[in-house]
Amino acid sequence: MKEPAAVVIKEVGPRDGLQNEQVTIATEDKIAWINQLSKSGVTHIEITSFVNPRWIPALADAVEVALGIDRVPGVTYSALVPNARGLERALTANIDEVAVFLSASETHNRKNINKTIEETLPILREVATEALAAGKKIRGYVSTVFGCPYEGHVATESVIRITDALLEMGVGEVSLGDTTGIANPRQVQDVLAILLERFSHDQLAMHFHDTYGSGLANVYASLQMGMTTFDASTGGLGGCPYAPGAAGNISTDDLLYMLHGMGIHTGIDHGRLLEAAAFIQAKIGRQLPSRNLQAYLSGNNS
Q1: Cα 83 to Cα 18: distance, rounded to the nearest angstrom
Q2: Strand bridging mode 173-178 / 137-143
Q3: pTM here?
Q4: What are the catalytic residues?
Q5: Arch. (CATH architecture) of 8-297
Q6: For the segment 102-155, what is each residue's pLDDT rounded down to a tens digit?
Q7: For an engineered disulfide with 137, which of 12, 97, 111, 190 has Cβ 3.0 to 4.6 Å away?
């Protein structure tokens, strides 16, 4: 299949990127970073999480961040919401889109949410019902789609069952997560070939991590299958607290370099995105994985 002419990149750095960082980023710096991202042409930013701060202390200032940013027309500001209590906070913070989440493997779901998959679905259904009633869009994340750090192989039938349940409760788009970055391009295409027999391209998004360096190759494999929506994190920030050894998400900056070089439109200004990446790297105080960012900072940005 010919690659699509345009794709949508959903920026997840402020949530997925920061949730596993040991350095505490000041609230005003998070706000400044998100404001930079908003001006780069990104149309969707996951800005924080309303998970109990005891579990994700790095994002304890979720309400302050959401209320402090400058909202740019045309940009959707999303946040992770685990339950009804989290939704109350998210609605107070005027989030545009609610993101719910669970895993395709039982063990990872228990580690991440402390519940079985069957126990999790009714909680998410309650969140979805209330969010829709409040006029909010809903996105769903399914983790460990391509393998689990505890169980190994994950049956695609489990992914189908969970995706069906999420769409039935009103989720508009399901993001398929390679939580530990173990997927390879052939596997990605094999799984998508099955899923796309049941779901449309616009119901699915791809969420790759780059633990073993195959993240961009997996994006290319997805493009060949007609996929047009990808999650990425500025600078390559990220990692899952409940997936030992998982590296960051694919870097938004590196993804832009590849897509723009292929003539695929994203609507994002690569230069402004790199400025935002440089800003957050300075605040974190260590070199981030993005190769484009390091080339940019060294002056080799030709």
Answers
A1: 21
A2: parallel
A3: 0.95
A4: 240
A5: Alpha-Beta Barrel (3.20)
A6: 999 999 999 888 899 999 999 999 999 999 999 999 999 999 999 998 999 999
A7: 97
